[in-house]
Amino acid sequence: MPSGLEVLVRVVVTGAGGYIGSRLVPALLGDGHDVTATFTKASSAQRFWWADRVRVVEMDVLDRGSARAAFADAQALFYLIHGLGGDDFATTDREGAYNAAHAAVRAGVGRIVYLGGLVPDLPDADLSPHLRSRLEVEDVLTDSGVPTIALRAAMVVGSGSTSFEVMRQISERLPVQVLPTWMRTSRVEPIAVTDVVAALVGALDAPARSRAYDVGSGEPLAYAALLRRYAKLAGLTRVQVSVPLLPTALVSRLAPVLTAAPATTVQTLVESLHHDMVCREDDFRRDLLPSGHRLVPVGRALERALHVPGDGVADADRDVMGPLGSDADWAGGQVSRSDGRPVHHRHGGWRGLLLGPPPSS
């Protein structure tokens, strides 16, 4: 793997409290990097076992001054800030990206690494608002002149990942799955969160030139087939019924009712599903992953995402594909795996398994 920068130890991770960021920070620490982790509120960093091993900085990316202060002396920047909710998330994302790019230039940052969404082979005008915004952020960062490496992922598999949790919760709550016909033909290429993290870390040593990489497992499959595979591994019996001409807009309005995730987040994600979300190249395997790295197969990734360790296992010792105590409160389902077999829980999924049933009212 070619080396872009000879010394790269001072790293800023924006969005460190998010799903990807919270799993990236330990990997960077493990490689010996000096990590600054940004949070909207510094006090929230205490949820993470690694908080006392990083420099915690309070930053609002919409405030250019606080971004400049956070990026001071940084050699590399991981930009993991995304907006999924609200009527004007695209404007907010654009403004945040401009501020981050400006601050990176002022600080002399040598590299920006960005995680965005896999882009279907369509004109920009035909992309969903979510994907169009991700692509715009990528363009803003790249246009800064700072070498920018963008990773484009479709569905990230791991307990706590928004896209995985939406699939999990819809599967558990719908014994009969009424699916639009396109879900039997449109394909998605999932990728395990461990592989995403490995590629992000590897981007620090990639050639120092701006480019985007599609990242995936190499196993594209139809959305309906992915739902069936999940149901089988979770020990669920589910019937799928295809409905021709079922509008995507209607599906996006109904899906939030079936999940505990924020409604606007679910709507935004579902609107991106209508077209193939598969990799058009796999250069990231050569340029970003360490020699000998083997991608996690989709089935194995689903199994690991469902697995819950026994009581008393600290987050630092858990498989990052499984649940962590710092994950969003709405994450988790009614099914986990123990010793390779599905376990169905009466009370609140893995949190119920660890904490016991809720108190009676």
Give the helix/strand layout:
Layout: E1 10-13, H1 19-30, E2 34-39, E3 55-58, H2 64-71, E4 76-79, H3 89-107, E5 111-117, H4 129-143, E6 148-153, E7 156-157, H5 162-173, E8 176-180, E9 187-188, E10 191-192, H6 193-202, E11 211-215, E12 221-222, H7 223-233, E13 239-243, H8 248-254, H9 263-270, H10 283-287, H11 298-306, E14 335-338, E15 341-344, H12 349-355
Parallel strand pairs: 1-2, 1-4, 2-3, 4-5, 5-6, 6-11, 7-10, 8-13
Antiparallel strand pairs: 9-12, 14-15
Pfam family, one: NAD_binding_10
Region (Disordered): 326-361
Protein name: NAD(P)-binding domain-containing protein
Span from first to last CA? Answer: 59 Å
Largest sheet report: 7 strands, parallel
Strand order of the largest sheet: 3-2-1-4-5-6-11
CATH structural architecture of the domain at 10-156 and 187-218 and 277-287: 3-Layer(aba) Sandwich
Structure write-up:
- The protein is α/β, with parallel strands linked by helices and 361 residues long.
- Among the domains are: 10-156 and 187-218 and 277-287, NAD(P)-binding Rossmann-like Domain (Rossmann fold); 298-355, no CATH class.
- It contains twelve helices and 15 strands.
- The strands form five sheets. A seven-stranded parallel sheet has the order 3-2-1-4-5-6-11, sandwiched between helices.
- Helix 1 (19-30) packs across helix 6 and helix 3 runs parallel beside helix 4 (129-143).
- The longest helix is centred in the first third of the chain and has 19 residues, at 89-107.
- The termini are far apart.
Quick overview:
The protein has 361 residues and is an alpha/beta fold. The chain has 12 helices and 15 strands. Among the domains are: 190 residues, Rossmann fold, CATH 3.40.50.720; 58 residues, no CATH class.
